[in-house]
Write the structure tokens for this entry.
Amino acid sequence: MNSKIFNKRNFYFLTTGIIALLVGILGGTVDILQTQEVINASVSLGYPLYFFTLLGVFKILGAIALFLPKKFERIKDIAYAGFAFDFIFASFSHYSVGDGVDKIITPIIMLVVLAVSYNLKDKLNI
């Protein structure tokens, strides 16, 4: 048994958990509930509020898909792609409206976390 705390398998579950819980479940729920922060983002970015409702539903479904067993690999890959598109478009949207660097960089950082999760998924054959 490997006694290392930070082995590849644990790091996979850490990175995947960050995406699934923070972005998928928490972020998706906030998008669906349309908190004041979501309403402000909607106005700032020029997106209609119904966009965030659908985005929230897909984030939650994507979070669930990330933890499906190996036999559902195609669905998992679609979820990874969906999160990647979300992060890229979020970063570009914030850039396009002149938002601060923090709002532009945060989705890119999450994209890197997602890429690490995806890479480890394939290496560990999960």
Summary: Residues 8-124 form one domain.
